[in-house]
Amino acid sequence: MKIFAISDLHLSTVEPKPMDIFGGNWDDYWQKIECDWQDKVDDDDIVLIPGDTSWAMRMSDAMPDLEKIAKLKGKKVLLRGNHDYWWNTIGKVRNALPEGMFAIQNDCMRFDDYLICGSRGWTCPDRGPFDEQDQKIYLRESERLKLSFEQMSKMRQPGDKVICMMHFPPFNVRREDSEYTKLIIKYDINAVVYGHLHGKDCRADLVVEKFGTKFFLTSTDLVGHKLTQIY
What is the pLDDT of residue 74? Predict the structure, then answer.
């Protein structure tokens, strides 16, 4: 079994919102993703999608986007991003997902000897604006991440590899410690996949290793609309 990741697909089948307004790098991007996906992925593999999957505002409008992904090979594991307004309660999301698609929200799932867990996260404190509301959400999301890791700990067995999905980066632009990285260290997470960052001017590294954990930035435009292999 191989594990891949790609995020920030921003699909919009029902009410088209072309992404090429953000630059030529987005021209025909879904076709590029689809081609790379079908070339790399086998039916037993897993593809992690850490957020911003669809622009839809309602679940019914998101279904054509989700079905488009569901037709591709492999099992798909989704996490909510800040633009996934269609994402309702986790129970409703899981009941609506097409076969072969799974959702993570502050909890953990096992796939053979891989444990997939995580939470959306939030912007980490930096030198820029960070108000009281940001602080409130940031701390709330750290508690949700802790819940996910606590569940993972109860499931963990010797030899398991643990992958944490987050939508927001777990650190600021200088990769300083945060409430998220403290938890990642404490619970000995093997790999973290995240997205949210976009644009040709983004200077973030695609792969970073800190304290024995690998961090993978998987925003589709930054990875050339190709899946990143995690394991």
Answer: 98
CA pair distance 138, 135, nearest whole angstrom: 5
Please state the φ and ψ torsions of residue 35, each to the nearest 5 degrees.
-65, -45
Q: What is the mean pLDDT of the chain?
A: 94
Q: 1 Cβ partners below 8 Å, 6+ apart?
A: 44, 45, 46, 111, 112, 114
CA distance 167 to 145: 12
Q: What is the pLDDT of residue 83?
A: 95
Query: Which of 20, 14, 3, 85 has its CA nearest to residue 225?
Result: 20
Q: Are residues 206 and 226 in contact, defined by beta-carbon separation less than 8 angstroms?
A: no
pLDDT band at 153 (very low <50, low <70, confident <90, very high): very high
Query: Could you state, in order of their start, the residue ranges of all structural domains in the chain?
Result: 3-229
Q: What CATH number should be reported for the domain whose range is 3-229?
A: 3.60.21.10
pLDDT(110) > 90: yes
